[in-house]
């Protein structure tokens, strides 16, 4: 690639001490180490009103769409709520669609307060497939996530490695473009 790949992480947690946000920061470090330009979309800091199909550019939704369209890869992170993604991530995802995800590499990360995250990752995969995105087979689910972080740092080396690999793979697979043109390049 001539240009640095652009990897965006979307944090679906609104919590102040979010394990999802902390984990995504490690994924972006992995992407950066592979030479990517990175950006964290922290939905706590964005004005993303409840989705209204009659007004698809409310608040910061237009900027969210433009940022996602520029991305060579997107990493979506969510806390697990009742076996599903957070309402914040679902709401942001409702503003996005095929224009942002078609042919785009997408990494998935879920943080669980307890032990189950499989249904949440499946829920995310289904949504990404629906908008023609390509999910990286290497996904990260973290059980008992609050016990894995201390003062913003990961205390489990194996989980840290898995998260960084997710960021690395986002870069490594960011060139997967099935006969599409993105950022001025034909792949």
Task: Walk me through the structure.
α5 (118-130) links the parallel β4 (105-111) and β5. The chain has six helices and ten strands, in the order βαβαβααβαββββαββ. The model has no long low-confidence stretch (mean pLDDT 93). The chain is 36% helix and 21% strand. It has a single domain (6-175), classed as 3-Layer(aba) Sandwich (Rossmann fold).
Distinctive features:
globular, single chain, two-stranded antiparallel sheet, alpha/beta, 187 residues, Rossmann fold, six-stranded parallel beta sheet, 6 helices
Q: What is the CATH topology assignment? A: Rossmann fold
Query: Helix segment count?
Result: 6
Count of individual domains: 1
Helix content: 25-40%
Count of β-strands: 10
CATH C-level: Alpha Beta
CATH superfamily: Flavodoxin domain
CATH architecture: 3-Layer(aba) Sandwich
Q: Could you tell me the strand content as a percent range? A: 15-25%
Biggest sheet details: 6 strands, parallel
Order of helices and strands: EHEHEHHEHEEEEHEE
Derived from helix and strand composition plus strand pairing, the structural class reads: alpha/beta
What is the distance, rounded to the nearest whole angstrom, between the alpha carbons of the first and last residues? 10 Å
Question: Which residues sit in consecutive blocks of at least 5 with pLDDT less than 50?
Answer: none
Oligomer status: single chain
> Which descriptor suits the 3D outline?
globular
Radius of gyration: 15 Å
Mean pLDDT: 93
């Amino acid at each position: 690639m001539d240009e640095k790949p652009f990897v965006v992480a979307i944090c679906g947690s609104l919590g102040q001490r979010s394990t999802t946000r902390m984990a995504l920061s490690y994924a972006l470090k992995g992407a950066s180490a592979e030479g990517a330009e990175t950006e964290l979309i922290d939905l706590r800091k964005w004005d993303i009103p409840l989705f209204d199909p009659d007004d698809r550019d409310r608040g910061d939704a237009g900027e969210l769409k433009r940022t996602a369209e520029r991305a060579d890869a997107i990493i979506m992170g969510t806390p697990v709520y009742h076996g599903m993604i957070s309402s914040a991530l679902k709401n942001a995802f409702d503003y996005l669609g095929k224009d942002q995800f078609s042919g785009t590499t997408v990494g998935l990360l879920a943080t669980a307060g307890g032990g189950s995250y499989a249904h949440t990752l499946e829920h995310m995969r289904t949504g990404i497939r629906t908008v023609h995105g390509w999910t990286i087979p290497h996904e990260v689910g973290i059980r008992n996530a609050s016990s894995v972080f201390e003062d913003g740092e990961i205390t489990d080396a194996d989980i840290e490695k898995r998260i960084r690999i997710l960021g690395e793979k986002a870069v490594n697979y960011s060139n997967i473009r099935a006969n599409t043109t993105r950022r001025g390049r034909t792949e």
